[in-house]
Amino acid sequence: SFHRGRTPVKQRPSAQPLPAALNARPTSALLKPIHAHLVAAVVPALTEPASRPSSNAMLAHEGGLPLKFGFVGAGMMAGAMIRGLVKANVVAAPNIMASDAYQPSLDALSKELGIAVTLDNKEVARASDVVVIAVKPGQVQEVCLDISTGNPQALIVSIAAGVTIASMQSYTGIAAPKIVRVMPNTPACVGELAAAYAPNEHCSAADAAIVGAMLGALGTAFKVKEVDLDAVTGLSGSGPAYVFQFIEALSDGGVRAGLPRNVATALAAKTVKGAAEMVLVTGKHPAELKDQVTSPGGTTIAGVHALEQGGMRAAVINAVMAATERSKELAKESEGGWAAVAEVRMVAAHSSLFVECMSYTDTDGDSQYAAKKCELG
Question: Measured between alpha carbons, how far is 117 from 105 in angstroms, rounded to an integer?
C-alpha cells in the first residue's frame, strides 16, 4: 500500500479509456490528405493547461517507509519519468536508482537529479521495490531474468512496446511475478503524459494503485485491460506523431497564406494546445465546441468543408487502426520470437545441467542465442 496526496489517475466522468501507440509506419501516407487540403484558420489558444497540485506526498509503504524505484534503461522516456517523479515530489532522488549500458546517460541523470546509477541491472533490482523496464523489446527477456535473480518480489513495470505480460511472466521464471504493462507517450517529457496501464492477476489493488500514482505524477493515466493496450498504442501512444503532422500542415497553411514560418508554427502549436485544453476543461463534446465557432457562411466552416473534402476524419481513424493492428502484430512476434528460450527453460526445470539453447531468430532478425550456453538449472 502507499500514501499519496492526490488522486493517482486524472479521469473526468465523461472520459473513456483511451488507445495509444508508439511507432506506426503507415502514419505519413494515411495523413497526407489532411496536409494536402488543410486550410489555416488561426485561432489563439484561450486557456493554459490546468495547474497541477502544488504538493504531493511521497509514495511509501503502509508503515511510512518510502518506496524505492529502479529504472533499467535510462533513455529519453525513462529520463522523463524520473524527472517527473522527482519534480512532483512523489519519489525522492535518493530513492531512485537507474542502470543503462550507456554510461553518459547515467552520468547526466546522476548529475542533474542526484539519483544513484549503475551498470548492473541486478543491483537495481536488489535495491528497488518497483522496477521499471525501459529498454528495447529485444532486451526485455534478459532484463526480466536480471530482475528475477536480483529481487523476485519486485513489482515490475514495463514500458517496452509490444511485449506482452505473458511473455514477461515466462521470461522471469517466477511462479507469480507482479507485472504491470504500461503504454506511455512522449509528452511525458513535458509533464503531459497520456497513458494506460494493465496489471496482471498477481498484482494487488495496492500494486496497481502505486503504478497509477506514479503515472499520475507525470500526467494522465487510465487503468485498462491488457487487450485494450493495442488500441491505446494506436491512439495516444502513436498519437503525438499524428498531432505533430497536423501542426506542421497547419503551419504550412499559414505560410501559404503569407505568414512567416516561425509565427505560423507558434500559432499552430498554440492553437492545438488551447483547443485540446478547451475539450478537457469544459467537458464538452469536440463537435459542440466546433459548432460554436463555425458561423453560417463564415471562414471557419469554409475551412472545415475543405478538411472534409480531404478526408481528414477517415485518414485519422485509419491511422489509429493501422497503428493498433501493428501493435497486435508486434505482440504476436514477441510471444513467438522467444519460444526457443521458453522451451529451454522448461527443459532446464527438470535438470541442473548446462543446456544448449535452440537456434532461432528474434523479431529483429538476429540469431542472438544460437548455440549459446545457458546455465538455467
Answer: 10
